[in-house]
Amino acid sequence: MNDLLTAVLLGIVEGVTEFLPVSSTGHLILASALLGYDEAHWRLFNIVIQLGAILAVAVLYWRTFWTVLTGLFAREAGAVRFVRNLLIAFIPAAVIGLALKDQIEALLLQPRVVAVALIVGGIAILVIERLVKPGTTRGIADMPARTALGVGFIQCLAMIPGVSRSGATILGALSLGVERRTAAEFSFFLAIPTMLGASVVELGGHHRELMTGQGAGLGAIAVGFVVSFVVALLVVRWFVGIVGRHGFAPFAWYRIVAGALALLLLTQ
Fold first, then answer.
1. Which of 30, 126, 201, 253 is the 20 to 30 A CA-CA neighbour of 63?
2. The whole model's pTM is what?
């Protein structure tokens, strides 16, 4: 498979899975392991295409961001609380992620960890869906600071590949009394500082690769970025509608089946 075709395939994987509770990093790791990609060759590529998914959220919710920005200049309480909650939720991942960077990178080389995490995460989703009562907190600005901090610590579970950042934050918010749509949107917005921060750190660690043009190449990176952006645009809109009608159970069963299948293939 040539680099451009691989770039399209991985861009689709990233765009589809980044904001669903199924783990985009886990899927990219499994794709490398099961389809025979050279993980080192595509490492920088996988970092950059995440930014395409981030851009999709910025485009879809530009009115929200614009309202918050103008509200900050006007010192509106709602806008201040919105930004406060995002910053509070971002801090745990920033601190713990930097402290455990080497250990996290070691886990990225273990596809079996991903497969097990997919199964365990799927079971956890089913349990939480059954036990947690519908939340009453509507609107990110209405979330108490302690709730935002709790979601931030729960997000750190996603440092284990296969757990899913979006799944951890959404289900964590639900467990802390946030209603479904607000929990999903908070997860989308929290992805922006979290993924930007992680991407900057990773790009800094691979700056030589970026400067020398090693790896997949700028053409493949550009293709993957665009594909990830377009696919994420479609998936985010679809996801909010699916969750509102059917909850998270379909994604839980997908995780269990995908994880079990991956374990089976990895042991052959």
1. 201
2. 0.84
